[in-house]
Design a protein that fits this description.
single chain; 114 residues; mainly alpha; 0% strand
Length: 114
Amino acid sequence: MNIKARHLALVSLGGIVGSLSRWAIAELIDSGLIATFIVNISGVALAGIFLYRLQLSTAQRLFLVTGFCGGFTTFSAIDVGALDVSIATAGFYVSGTLLTSLALLRIIRKPVSQ
């Protein structure tokens, strides 16, 4: 395996920025499930835009998609947040997050008409 130090640094820095951004939004919104939902949906939308709408270099993709979006969004927060609510709310929340994410990616991935 050939891991380039520059690539490792880009992913790490992007992850730091993404994680701090997620924390800041959670602090501003002050509601665990809502903050996590907003972060995950916006993170998926950003990743989709970065991957399907922009022509990014490898370095930009590593920083923005793998690093920032990877650090910004979190499946573990979905799981932990879902434990603190009723099973019905948890089911609605988890399925809503996944279905909304998939719908956004389908919209973003479609070619832009000219």
